[in-house]
Specification:
There is one protein chain. The chain has 246 residues and is α+β, with helices and mostly antiparallel strands. The chain has helices spanning 42-63, 66-69, 82-94, 102-114, 191-204, 211-219; strands at 12-13, 17-24, 27-34, 121-125, 128-132, 137-140, 152-156, 163-168, 183-188, 224-231, 234-239, 243-245. The longest helix is centred in the first third of the chain and has 22 residues, at 42-63. The two termini are 23 Å apart.
Length: 246
């Protein structure tokens, strides 16, 4: 499958960035940092961080198996690790289960840790992106078999506080979606929140008539800055979003 080959990764362009893969079990991330910040220990530090996050989450799920299976906001047990708290808080705002935020949460935590030493960071995790850059970047939109796939992109201006750009789809990838979108994209300051809210957007859009009410609902979520939805040859957009031709 094209999704599994991650061919969409060529549509994330970071000027002056050095990129390396970060993989462990089911986790398959792509990390980019500015060339000046790349140091011999950075890749090892990133992998160690990923291992710790996975271990924390896996151990918590053993204690709280409903966390992994519920499709509704979930109340955590005491002593839940940082990654679980981030996922649960984002999912609560978006009205979905915490696993809807897992990819974005991993990208965000790793990105925020790396930006302690790197000036520019982009972490992509299965189409969900956390970034903090000093310059504008453009990311293409992969929307499966939609005629708009690869034809339009997002221009993202510098956000010193960091930014999450996450995508959900009913036609691309293995994620569960109750809607029919080829791409449902949300931008916010948190990749975990963007991931959860993109799931909400994707779940609720079944036809073009759903675009406006669902985009309004998603953009009313505290912290969401903008959203894009693609269904076949139709596109809807709302909020602080700049679309550009690719």
């Amino acid at each position: 499958m094209q999704y599994r080959r991650r061919t969409y990764r060529r549509w994330v362009q970071g000027k002056g960035m050095t990129t390396f893969p970060l993989s462990l079990k089911e986790s398959d991330l792509l990390v980019s940092v500015d060339q000046d910040s790349l140091c011999p220990g950075l890749r090892k530090d990133a992998l160690t961080l990923l291992m710790g996050l996975r271990n924390d989450l896996e151990q918590y799920i053993v204690r709280d198996p409903l966390f992994q299976s519920t499709l509704l906001p979930h109340r955590l047990l005491s002593g839940a690790p940082r990654i679980a708290r981030l996922m649960a808080a984002a999912a609560r705002r978006a009205g979905v289960g915490p696993m809807a935020a897992v990819a974005g949460a991993f990208a965000e935590v790793i990105g925020r840790e790396l930006q302690r030493t790197a000036k520019d960071v982009i972490v992509e995790n299965g189409g969900d992106i956390y970034l903090k850059t000093r310059h504008s970047i453009t990311t293409g939109i992969f929307a499966g078999n939609s005629p708009l796939s690869g034809k339009v992109g997002l221009r993202l201006f510098p956000r010193p506080e960091g930014c999450g750009v996450c995508t959900s789809s009913a036609t691309v990838g293995p994620s569960l979606s109750f809607g029919r979108t080829d791409a449902a994209i949300v931008i916010s300051r948190s990749a975990a929140l963007s991931d959860a809210a993109a799931s909400t957007l994707g779940n609720l859009v079944h036809q073009e008539e759903d675009f406006i009410p669902v985009l309004e609902k998603v953009c009313s979520i505290r912290g969401v800055q903008g959203a894009v939805v693609i269904l076949g040859d139709k596109l809807g957009v709302m909020g602080d979003v700049e679309l550009v031709p690719m």
